[in-house]
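We close this part of the discussion by returning to an individual protein. Part of our work consisted of pairing the sequence of a single chain with a tokenised description of its backbone. The amino acid sequence and the backbone structure tokens for this protein are reproduced below.
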Amino acid sequence: MSELNKLYKKAVLAHNKNPHNYGKPETWTHHAEGLNAICGDLVEVYLTIADDRLVAVNFAGESCAIAMASASMMTELSTGLTLQDWQNRFNLFKQLMDPNNEQVSYDELGEVNTLITVKKFPSRIKSATLCWYAVDAAIKGQSSTTTE
């Protein structure tokens, strides 16, 4: 098993077992639901935005290990970012998950880079990207999004 595969497996298992920022907070300013109808992943994101910054990013829902780990990593990466910095990282993540992109990592994504291994299983890319699209929808004031 390559070092990247080991890192991926370790990261996914750790974040799935103990997801960070999981649960519906008492207060939030923005909310959206994301659905991956193909596999049944459902994620809800709760954002607190103040002064053009993601002050808090939480998520809840029922999803597979990949979706859960991606959401956990994404919340850690996103909390504290300006909306512009978040948009830049979202764009990098979409590039990372693009099967036609050969780039293997982006410094700005940190641990999220371990999810590149998902590209070996194209049907799982939607699971990994679901929470990211849900945050994008919430920022834009949309109540829901889908990976379809």
Summary: Residues 45 and 59 are 4 Å apart (CA to CA). The chain has one domain: 3-146. The beta strands are 30-36, 41-50, 53-62, 144-146. The mean pLDDT is 93.
